[in-house]
Amino acid sequence: MSQSLSRFAAPILWGTSQAGSTLLLASSAWMVSGLTSSPFLNGLLPAVGALPALMNLGFRRSGYWLQLLGVSLLLICSFFYGQSQIAKIALIIASFLTIFVHGIGQEVSNIPLQKSIMASSGVSMRRLQIGQEIGVLLGNLMTAILFPAVRQFIPALALMFPMAHFLHRSSQASGVQEASTPVKKKSESNSLCLMQGVVLGSLFGMLALWVREIDGGKCFDFAMVLVAYAVGRSLVAFVPKMQASLRYILIVFLLVSIELIPIPVISILMFSVIGALVGASDFSLVERLESFGDLPSRWQVLQNSSALGGLVGSFVLGIICEVLGLNVALFAVCFGFVVLAFAVSRKSLMA
User: Fold this and answer.
1) Residue 325, SS3?
2) What is the pTM of this model?
3) Helix (H), strand (E) at residue 113
């Protein structure tokens, strides 16, 4: 029998680990945007993190240790941050390696850990998802408050330790055989989830560099945009029902408004609404994936499709911006949302 958890502690445990991962990913993106102004390299970073979704990996709870390894590696490397070109190149390489290792850990361990937590606490998948959204919010908020990188990576590692403790205790209780047996993975995806991932991957793949280079912002500004987005996702229950295509058209309107009204407070509010609309779209898509099994499996299909789409989106937009300049990023993302709205309307998806 695995380590038991209360229904109150389970979402907190899951949310805490997600906070650590979010803090790592957000702070890494900002750090790389400061090390190089290349849109291609900045767009490639989230693509590398999504690359494990393409690999036919098994499911193992023990994969979580790779996430801890990734955070530890970048923490060590961040102490050698310097102004020399060699130091910058070394830290960029370390960042890419860390995100890749961390991505593998997430890919193989998320579903087994979710199922272990649900089995030991009786908590629903929806409550775990709420815990995750709160954790993402906390991670982004800490990105804004804790700066520079070393101050961000240390708490990221600390936030991931409670899950490691649960994994160690539950592995001891269930025995070595259960802990070391991989769960076979279904490499399944959904076309609409994939398309949404492409567009969102394009948006967030360039966001750190866009805030730094175009908006003239700082890490606090970048992180507060992410906080606003996470707050919006946590308010998904308040989004009124509407045609799925209309959500994406509203997002285009909000993105254009951010460009036309370059006021930080307005931008933050807009990203809150964008987060709520995207969150509602996620739930709408998951509800219609009945053929993929239980809810954890459906969310994994969404996550895998989004990761693959994000890889393509961030990589392609990075190349486009490398050739044409960063100013085309917003136009390209808006065009992507319009195409997505058209595709969704043809599928007749309703909220």
Assistant:
1) coil
2) 0.82
3) helix 85-121
